[in-house]
Each structure stands twice: as C-alpha cells, then as structure tokens.
# Entry
Amino acid sequence: MDFLWDQPYFFLILCLGLSFWIRSAGVFSEVHHKHNFAVFLGEQCTPAQRREVLRALLLSVPGDHAAFRWLVMFAMIQAGGAGCLVWYLAYTLLMLRPLGALAALRSYYQGPDGGPLNLGRLLELMLQRKERAARPLLCRALSVLHYLLLGCVLPFLAAPLLGFRGYLPAGGQPWLLVSALLAGAVCLLFRRRGRAAASILFLLFLLLALLGNLASLIPVIELSLLDSVQLSSFLSALTGAGLMAVLQGGARLGAGTALLHGCADPGELPRFPHPVFCSVYVQLRACLQMVLQTAVGLLFLCARLVPQDNDWVLTGLAGFLCLFTLLDLERAVRNFLRSTGKGQVLAALCLSCALLLWDFYTAAGLFPLLGWGVCWLSTIAVAGILAADGNWYTILLEDYRDVYIWHVQPHPSIRPYYRRP
# Structure
C-alpha cells in the first residue's frame, strides 16, 4: 500500500494545510497578536475554563490510541529511517489548522449535548445545514468506512500486551505485563487522579531518559536532519532508505494520524461556549502530542544507536506503553457500550481478527493491506469533508473574532446557543 502514500497524496495534504492556514490568517489579519495559544488561555478562557483545559491536557498526555501511534512510529523509523521524525514534525505542523477545523465542525454539528459522530452522520448534518439533497448511499459508505477503521485500529490496542516483535525487546515480559496491569487497575480505581498520576510519571520518565541520553541526543538529532534530506546516504542502520521512504513515513505519522481523528472518538473534551474554543484546544493538544511523540522517537533512536546504555529506557517505554494500552482498552470498551453502532463495530472487528488469524497461519499479509487501505481512504474522506465545509469553518472563525476579540454583534448565521450571553 506504499503507492497510495505518494506524490498525489503529498500534493493533496499540502493544498489542504495551506488553504486552512491562509483562511485563518485572513480572518485574523487585523488581530494577529490576539491569535495564539497564550492569548486564548490568558484572555479568552475564564479561570475555571483555564483550569479545565490544563487538567484535560494533563490527562491527554498518553494520547489517543497510544499503542497505534507508537507502534506505527517505530515501524516507520525501522522502514524509512530516522528522517521520518523530521517530516512527521513538518506534516503535523501543516495539519494543525485542518485538525482544528475538523474539531470545530464536529463541535458545531454535535451541539451542546450531542453524542459522538461518525463520518456518515457528519456529512448528513452538513448537507442538512446547506439544504442540499440527501445522499444516503454516500453517508452509508462513510459510516461503514468509519467502523472498518475502528475494527482495524482496535487490534493494535492489544499488540503491546503480546510483545513488540523487535521494536521494544522488553515488551511481552510477564513481570512487565503484571506491573502494567496493577498500575492500570490503580489508575482506573482512582479515575482522573490515577490517570493524572500516570501522566506525571510518564513526563518524569521522559525527562530522566532524555537527560540520561544527552551525550547521544545531539548526534541523533543531526542524524535525523541529514536523513530527512539526503536521498540514499547510508549513515547508520536506521538511515539510507531514500527520500520517498521518509516522506511516506512522515505523512503516515503526521498527516494521516491527524486526519484519522475525524473517524476516531476524540475522547472527553472540556465544555466550551463556542466551537472555535474546541478548535484551539485540539490544536494545543496536538502540539503537546507532537512534542511527546518526538521525544519518544528520539529515545527509540538513542536506544538503537547505543543499546548497551538504554536497556532501562526500552523497559520503561514498554511498561508505559502497556499501561496506556490497558487504559485505551478500557476507554474503547466504555465507548463501545454506549455507542449506537455496536453491530457494525463487532462485524468490522471480527473481520480484522479473522484476517489476523489467517495471516498468522498462512503469512498472506492481508491485514496490513486492509488496514493501510482503510486508513488511506479515511484520510481522503476527512480531507473531502474539510474541503467541502471549509467556508463554514471560516464563518465560525469570524463569529469567534467578532464576539470574543472585537466584542461586537455575532454572526447572524450561527445557531443561538453558541452565542455568548
């Protein structure tokens, strides 16, 4: 499926990202100094909202589907080289505005008390707002794609509990799994406080691991920068795969992961009075995840280059990944029990598990073909929805600017319950 993540896909991502950056810049052209994260937290949010945002950011440190993110990152570095991290940063920054637009549109169509939306339902509500003719076949196809993606991603959540097949040698050890299981039980018992404690411990571990690898950190960063632009120079065992390989790895990690948020459940979000508040929060959260995932990638490279000094780093990464996997599984089960498409999710999950068993016995490789194909189609679908409803996101931005920055009459097209009293 590597041919799907090729030049046309790169061009689509570039056009999508630049178009939303240009639109945002046009809306805030006269108030550039008011359009940043610091002003949003310091001026637009009340003290209670600020505390809620910071608390939610702390709880989101593990990220959504940490096992999927980390294992894909390790696989891309193994296949494409260290330069994938540089292009991951570039694609993630490029996709910040589209990711924020997607969050704002989902928040608008959900309403204050709405439930989770799949892509089919999102398109249906978008057509209703535009007073266009309904497209039931297309909406149904997008819903099926949504459930197929969930069915392909869910098996990744159990992968860390079975070992990492060469990525993290410490993975799969019984004592590590038992420790992660006990830690996960404690986190679930104390709920928010337990998850916050796990996030703080993970941040401390990353800090200690980076400090312990200061001697090799600068060479690793230099190695990543060189591998991201050199076509086929062999600098180490994790370089020399070629420019197209690192571009494809960065696209899957950065743009692909960002656009897949359109299909995945965004998790528990703070309550905001306007959809653009949700947009800024999601962009802030994406920046936090970008920094943390880059740190994990650098540690993985350090452990590969200097393995004799980093056994404890690999063990720590494997332990935290097992812990976050258990927390993700618990959240996935809870979301499944309250979802409306239980039958579709079960059917997709049974299909993916059947393909996994078939691959295990025959080595046919059907599950990777299905998984990467569904991921690619999902990103294309989300990009299409963003392109079709981008003008409405611009209207939401104008309403946010008028009400919360200029303090004037809100936009007449926005539904009343999003207007500040």
